[in-house]
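Protein chain data
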Amino acid sequence: MKFNPRRIKVLVELTSKCNLRCGMCPLPVLRRPYEDMDFSLVEKAEREIHGLGMKLKWLHEMGEPLLYSRIDDAIRLFPEASISTNGLVLTEEVGAKLLSSPLKRLRISVDSINPKVYPQLRTGGDFDKLVDMTKKFLEQAKGHPIRIEIQKMRSRMTVDETIDDFRKLFELKKYRNARVIERTCEAFDVNEETDLHGKFYGCVQGAFFNWIVIFADGRVTHCCYDAHGDQIIGDLKTESLTEIIEGSKLVQMQALFDKRDFSELPRCAECFKHGGESAAWTGVLSGVQALPEAAKDVVRKVLDVRYR
């Protein structure tokens, strides 16, 4: 299929291991091993991604990236990438690693500042520990050019919390490099139904096959929602990224998608089936897919604001 590196968003999963087992995440029932990416494969990923003129968006998919022992070395290979963390391994030592690297943006998923709500969002998390570690890192990074984002989750459980509440708790007036962002909870295949979300908030970007996600084991999928690896398009351990992108597997999957034949596309089937809580979402996806390529590009740019 025709390849345009400007349309591709790339993720590298340094590890599929995590210290939490959150209800909105498929990791508790992940149908692939919990493992770290061999650093030689991280190096190959860098050569392949940058060699094709692409930039890395995030240094994670599943898993907690700060658990990766060579996180600072990985950042040096991908200085353009951002990292999102649950914040519970953000020790002074880890913070020093990040601040000595070229990392430009760190997102800390605090999600709720209500100590009763937080453990319902982040299963296994310690609220007091998170607040303490976040405050200490803010002080450690004071005056540093890194951008720190404190994430507030927008859900039915956090409707009474405001961005100002977060700012006050973390005294963000003291830290010019920190801000609060608000995100919705977009579920993957989850381990349980929760009141955080409906069955599935569909990802319209997945309809365009414009993601490349490299799992810790080297396998590659085309969709950031394919957490279990149901729609693998290649393996970076044995193939180049060019071979994967230009290979027959992706062409076959695109043909099936265009025909709305989801017999071999279980992830896409779920996206269309549970496209948010609106029954009209499937029609939106189909309508966008019918647009000329130039119009699709406009839609992608609009959507990228949401998925930045």
